[in-house]
Design a protein that fits this description.
By secondary structure, the chain is α/β, with parallel strands linked by helices. It is built from 36 helices and 15 strands. Among the domains are: about 140 residues, Serine Threonine Protein Phosphatase 5, Tetratricopeptide repeat (Alpha Horseshoe), CATH 1.25.40; about 100 residues; about 120 residues, Nucleotidyltransferase, domain 5; about 200 residues, 3-Layer(aba) Sandwich (Rossmann fold). The chain is about 55% helix and about 10% strand. Strand 1 and strand 2 form a beta hairpin. Helix 6 packs antiparallel against helix 7.
């Protein structure tokens, strides 16, 4: 059970943003009837600490300006470890392993200095103690400016401890002290800039990006007045990232371009190298991976020429994290190796080594993983006692556990327990409950291996209690999921469901944060998020499931679809708009199949509001084997009898149990919310033993029912048709596209951009010039589970999925109404990619179109021209208007009836996603 939200806790200022890409808004959630507050991001980007020390030396500034730069870039946080969990009885009491050189001092300036040292070592509770005392002493001496400075620092430390109430009080007091003196002291502008910057970080941690935007605009204003260009640069980086979180991509992109241009004209210094590195990290965070790589490589080149090993190693670590997003694991490992080799700071070296081990394990390169363990073990002893050092120990234990699971005997499990016990002890010694909870959680996971699960449960519950007390939702979500797994193993199914429900609700409230953190510390999607959703659905869908169970299972399935898309995009820019089926179409039924470990479950949602569910008991591997066989059978040359047999087998799994309900409720359209490899299967080609499914029903796909309920507006169907007939960029010619364009122009009022007229610039200009209801793109494209391999081809370039919506943002089209229909008629899914259709859904959703039609594979362009011609004839009809799904059905049937194209290969590839009306 979650604890109630304190009435005195600070509330976000302003109203909840309505923008669909406001990923940082965290809704209050309910668990067992009470609400809970979410937690802020944590940590200063540790790799900037050496840079800050160098700035202090080079510029001759006092400690105020040392922390000023760190605070400016605080939003680029180092965040949480990738996983964290041991028996409390094994955790010895420990003392801080460092000499407190200012112990007993009452000199506030020395207390401030010592607090900074503790903060940089991530000993946040100690920093609070020191800065709190410094603030008290300055207040007693009526020294307003240093008191405000201490309170500013204090707010940041409290934020890292998750105490947003105290953080709010400290920063508001600091601002209240400074603002009346704004024009009385020349130092005031710099202090106010820092304070507003700190408040911006707090605003964002509370889920209020609008307030953060205001705070960072104020910070920029005061940095300007103070003449602090470095501070101004950092504040503008924060502004760009906040605009991105609010969905204002064009503003964010423009500002990031300005910042890059500003850096390019500066001489090559360490300040420039570090600023470029920070810019690269922000570009990575907002999803611009290609530019991020260019910028980070430029930073690396400068620091390497200046022979600064600290900055070089930190940048190489960032580059490794980045290219890992490109799925270039071998390249990432080479960066990590070089970073570890050059690192002057033990923490940078350990982080690089741990990241390399992660990739070795992913590649099943066990020998390399084992070989690096002794070096990491030795380097861990060099880390100062602090949060980042604790996280490094926990991450080391996690890697050892994964290695032990694949190579029994290669790792001493007693060592894992000792590493985690030391991490818990260190966390307690510095009063860091968040780090303690992570270490306890990892220890609980370790003890799950013990047949006697008592220790595992006790440790997990302890982590859960701490997470609840400090409002650490990201820890709570993992702990609740882990507890659910333990309880399920113990046979306590109702308690397990309750735990998984809490984990699910916590993950829902954390939706924006799951994808907004540094890639090195991001939630591992399949392990931490997807498994929680699937386990909850599995427990809910029992033979005696109640209507309430079915309703929640459906909710979780839709949330899983959304979570997968968030993970694909690297942001949470899709909003849900719950709609009942009968509000959309009283003749439609929605199918939610999900592949679980031991069975294929299907939930059927009918327009009368009722839910049904049925299961096929088969191992997931067998389900996928049959689906792969069916997919292969859709290519000409596969034995026809075998294709029909396997097609009917899948039909029997998904549709046969629902036939009576579909007939009794006069269902005309089937909507599928598909899971896993089912997304690659065209439902139209399912065979009931007599007819294909498309011959019986109109068919649509949906990533959940977050749809625009209105149907196609027929009064005006202005169409922009673009395409390529010639071979370009290694892709084959599409001579049938010209006929396709002619068919469209015959039926609809159209603008056509063909071949060399279809450039990125011309396409963007047409979209800007006029509002189009339909955009038809007859060009090569690829859909992949990797957004950077998901694109549409133009004459001179490619349009990436992440850039697609920027073509419409701010245009007449974007300002007036969404696209009614987007058609991509010559695309294909990436070969061998089981989740390639995430890219298809990505284009559909990024465009903002009500409906999207696309091909799952590249179809004969002559057959495509015939199909599209018939589809647009149906759409253009003014009598007995068909829905878009019915228009596509009629077009597919027309091609099916052509003897030359009767094979499903030619007509079943085309799928409708989104609104089918």
């Amino acid at each position: 059970m979650r604890k109630a939200k304190s009435e005195s806790s600070p509330q976000p200022r302003g109203k909840q943003p309505s923008d669909p890409c406001h990923s940082f808004w965290r809704r209050e959630r309910y668990s067992s009837g009470v609400t809970a507050r979410s937690t802020p991001d944590i940590g200063i980007l540790s790799i900037l600490n050496p840079f800050a020390r160098r700035l202090r030396h080079q510029w001759g500034k006092r400690s105020l300006y040392l922390l000023s730069f760190l605070l400016t870039l605080a939003i680029i946080t180092f965040g949480m470890p990738s996983l964290a969990r041991t028996p409390t009885s094994e955790v010895p009491a420990a003392t801080l392993g460092e000499t407190d050189q200012f112990a007993g001092t009452e000199d506030p300036s020395l207390l401030l200095q010592e607090g900074q040292q503790r903060y940089q070592n991530s000993q946040f509770a100690e920093a609070v103690r020191l800065w709190e005392r410094a603030a008290q002493l300055h207040a007693a001496a009526r020294e307003t400016l240093p008191q405000a400075q201490a309170l500013n620092y204090l707010s940041l430390a409290y934020q890292n401890l998750g105490d947003t109430q105290s953080a709010q009080t400290a920063i508001e007091t600091s601002l209240n002290l400074l603002q009346p003196l704004e024009f009385q002291d020349g130092r005031m502008a710099g202090l106010l800039a820092q304070a507003w910057n700190t408040r911006g970080k707090l605003n964002l941690s509370q889920g209020n990006a609008d307030a953060a935007l205001e705070s960072w605009q104020q910070a920029q204003f005061y940095y300007d007045r103070a003449g602090d260009e470095t501070g101004r640069f950092g504040a503008r980086l924060n502004l760009a990232q906040t605009w991105q979180s609010l969905g204002q991509y064009r503003k964010a992109a423009t500002l990031l371009e300005e910042l890059n241009a500003q850096l390019q004209v500066q001489p090559d210094t360490l300040v420039k190298a570090n600023s470029l590195q920070s810019l690269g990290i922000v570009l990575q965070t907002v999803g611009d991976l290609v530019r991020a790589k260019d910028i980070l490589e430029q930073s690396w080149g400068i620091s390497d020429r200046l022979d600064d090993l600290e900055v070089t190693s930190a940048t190489l670590l960032s580059l490794g994290n980045l290219v890992k997003d490109f799925q270039q694991n071998d390249v990432a490992i080479s960066y990590y190796r070089e970073a570890a080799k050059l690192a002057m700071r033990p923490l940078t070296k350990v982080q690089a080594q741990l990241n390399a081990v992660t990739l070795y394990l992913a590649a099943e390169n066990w020998d390399e993983a084992v070989a690096i363990v002794p070096e990491i073990r030795a380097d861990l002893t060099q880390l100062p006692v602090g949060r980042q050092g604790i996280y490094a120990r926990v991450n080391f234990a996690d890697r050892l556990m994964k290695l032990s699971a694949r190579m029994p005997g290669a790792v001493d499990e007693g060592e894992i327990a000792r590493v985690l016990a030391a991490a818990v002890a260190d966390a307690r010694s510095i009063g860091d409950e968040r780090a303690e909870a992570y270490a306890l959680l990892q220890m609980g996971k370790l003890y799950e291996r013990n047949p006697n699960g008592k220790d595992a449960r006790n440790l997990t519950e302890k982590a859960l209690q701490i997470a609840q007390r400090i409002d650490a939702d990201e820890i709570f979500a993992r702990a609740a999921s882990q507890l659910g797994r333990i309880l399920e193993r113990e046979g306590q199914l109702q308690a397990a469901v309750a735990a998984y429900r809490d984990a699910f609700e916590a993950l829902q409230s954390l939706r924006g944060d799951l994808v907004a953190v540094n890639p090195d510390v991001q939630f591992e999607f399949r392990e931490s998020v997807e498994s929680t959703y699937r386990e909850l659905v599995s427990l809910l869908l029992q033979p005696d499931a109640t209507p309430a169970d079915l309703k929640q299972a459906r909710e979780v399935l839709e949330a899983l679809q959304l979570a997968e898309l968030d993970n694909f995009f690297g942001d949470a820019c899709l909003t849900t708009k719950p709609v009942q089926i009968d509000e959309i179409d009283p003749h439609s039924a929605v199918f939610y199949p999900i592949i679980l470990g031991d069975r294929l479950e299907t939930i059927l949602s009918l327009p009368d509001g009722s839910l049904r569910h049925y299961a096929t008991p088969l191992p997931a591997a067998e389900v996928e084997r049959v689906l792969q066989q069916f997919y292969s059978s859709l290519y000409p040359g596969y034995p026809n009898a075998d294709r029909l047999r396997v097609s009917q087998q899948v039909y029997d799994w998904l549709l046969q149990p629902a036939e009576a309900d579909l007939e009794s409720q006069d269902i005309q359209t089937l909507v599928f919310v598909l899971d896993g490899f089912l997304r690659n299967i065209p439902m139209a080609a399912l065979f009931d033993g007599d007819r294909y499914l498309v011959e019986k029903y109109a068919i649509a796909l949906s990533p959940g029912l977050q749809l625009f309920p209105e149907g196609l507006q027929r009064e005006r169907l202005k169409t922009l048709a673009v395409g390529l007939t010639e071979a370009r960029q290694g892709f084959s010619a599409l001579p049938g596209v010209e006929e396709e364009m002619q068919e469209i122009a015959t039926e609809l009022d159209s603008e056509v951009l063909l071949d060399d007229r279809f450039t990125n610039l011309n396409f963007a200009a047409e979209v800007e010039r006029e509002s189009f209801e339909i955009i038809h793109m007859a060009t090569h494209g690829q859909f992949s589970s990797n957004p950077d391999d998901t694109f549409l081809l133009t004459w001179n370039d490619r349009i990436g999925v992440k850039d697609f919506n920027q073509l419409f943002e701010g245009s007449r089209l974007g300002l007036s109404q969404p696209i009614e229909l987007l058609v991509m008629s010559a695309c294909q899914t990436a070969a061998g990619d089981k989740k390639a259709t995430l890219g298809l859904a990505g284009f559909a959703l990024r465009s903002g179109a009500r409906s999207t039609i696309a091909s799952l594979w590249s179809v004969n362009d002559r057959a495509t021209a015939d199909l599209m011609g018939e589809f647009y004839r149906q759409i253009a009809r003014q009598d007995d208007l068909p829905s878009k799904a019915e228009a596509l059905r009629q077009a597919q049937i027309a091609v099916l009836q052509n003897p030359s194209y009767k094979h499903p290969y030619f007509w079943s590839a085309f799928v409708l996603i989104g609104n089918w009306l």
